[in-house]
Specification:
single chain; 313 residues; alpha+beta; Rossmann fold; D-amino Acid Aminotransferase, Chain A, domain 1; Dna Ligase, domain 1; 3 domains; six-stranded antiparallel beta sheet; four-stranded antiparallel beta sheet; 37% helix; binds adenosine-5'-diphosphate; binds magnesium ion
Length: 313
């Protein structure tokens, strides 16, 4: 491998989002891997001054390790387009759509891709009627957040309004979703490949912030234990759901299976976690690819975008 072909690489991490701490972990893990591979990689804490910082730095491309708003929602991708700097992962549209769970679900519904039934909650909502329509339990989420931040699993009818208030602290756009019993499955995408599925088993009520980052009793099964045909079906669906949002390069699509094993798409992540405990690295390992090799494959997605997605000029 010729590490020089990538030129000078900015690893964008941190940033102003609620997922800043996780992003710093992802970014530092990526930086270490690139450095081990001999790539000329530099950490950039991507704040509001990211454009002048990148301009001054003389970079050839960017590895985006930002999670949440600003970095995973198309904003930084747009800045990089303006600068003419190639970057990893999905473009502006795919990132912007993926960050918004409401628009994703509307779009998937429109293309016949199954996603749990949902409604928008606001100050006018008749909460008792939503409970009647969706049934309990109901998941209430801020539409544009990640890491399970602001999410409540509502099990009693009287709790829905409080759950809306909690989610509304993070976003003025809040959705209520019918609960699907599980198991929970995640699909990692890399280039044209869908990596082996991971099945998640949590001790907590759902895969919340603690289960994701703090507890050590969350169990990850990869191989997933699904029958080969079911595994391939979910993998195909992951690719379709990702493509429907105009996403590409790499990412992760999350699913819940119902009692009959029917898959429902929950969400797509265009910049999933990249610590060595994260899910995409776990799926890559199951496919025989270690963390460092995975990081280089992701960096390669910035090479293919260079020609394919160039804007005018
Ligand atoms: N409709 C649902 N049915 C069952 N579990 C859900 C549902 N929506 C969310 N969850 C649980 O909540 C977790 C976080 O929800 P998700 O939509 O993936 O948001 P985030 O972007 O914060 O990861 C999921 O991993 C899953 O465990
Ligand atoms: Mg998720």
């Amino acid at each position: 491998m010729n590490a020089g072909r990538y030129g000078k690489v900015a690893v964008l991490m941190g940033g102003p989002s609620a997922e800043r701490e996780v992003s710093l972990k992802s970014g530092n893990a990526v930086l270490a891997a690139l450095t081990r591979a001999g790539v000329d990689a530099h950490a950039i804490d991507a704040g509001r001054d990211v454009i002048p910082v990148l301009e001054r730095g003389g970079f050839d491309r960017a590895f985006i390790a930002l999670h949440g708003r600003f970095g995973e929602d198309g904003v930084v991708q747009g800045a990089l387009e303006t600068l003419g700097l190639p970057y990893t992962g999905s473009g502006v549209l795919g990132c912007a759509l993926s960050m918004d769970k409401l628009r994703c679900k509307q779009l998937w519904k429109g293309c016949g891709i199954a996603t749990p039934a949902f409604e928008v909650l606001d100050a006018e909502t008749r909460f008792d009627q939503v409970v009647e329509r969706l049934g309990l339990p109901i998941f209430v989420k801020p539409a544009r957040e990640g890491s399970s931040i602001g999410i409540t699993k509502v099990k009693q009818p009287g709790e829905l309004e409080r759950a809306w208030e909690t989610a509304a602290r993070y976003d003025d756009l809040v959705i209520a979703e019918q609960a699907i019993v599980g198991p929970e499955i995640t699909a990692a995408l890399l280039g044209d490949q869908v990596l082996p599925l991971i099945r998640l088993e949590t001790v907590t009520e759902f895969y919340d912030y603690d289960a994701k980052y703090l507890r050590d009793d969350t169990r990850y099964h990869c191989p997933s234990g699904l029958a080969g045909r079911e595994e391939r079906r979910v993998q195909r669906l992951a690719r379709q759901a990702f493509a429907a949002l105009d996403c590409g390069g790499w990412g992760r699509v999350d699913f819940m299976l119902d009692r009959n094993g029917e898959p429902y798409v929950l969400e797509a992540n265009t910049v999933p976690g990249m610590t060595d405990h994260s899910l995409v690295p776990m799926a890559a390992r199951a496919a025989g690819m270690d963390f460092d090799a995975l990081v280089l494959r992701i960096l390669d997605t910035s090479l293919t975008r260079e020609g394919a997605r160039r804007g005018p000029g």
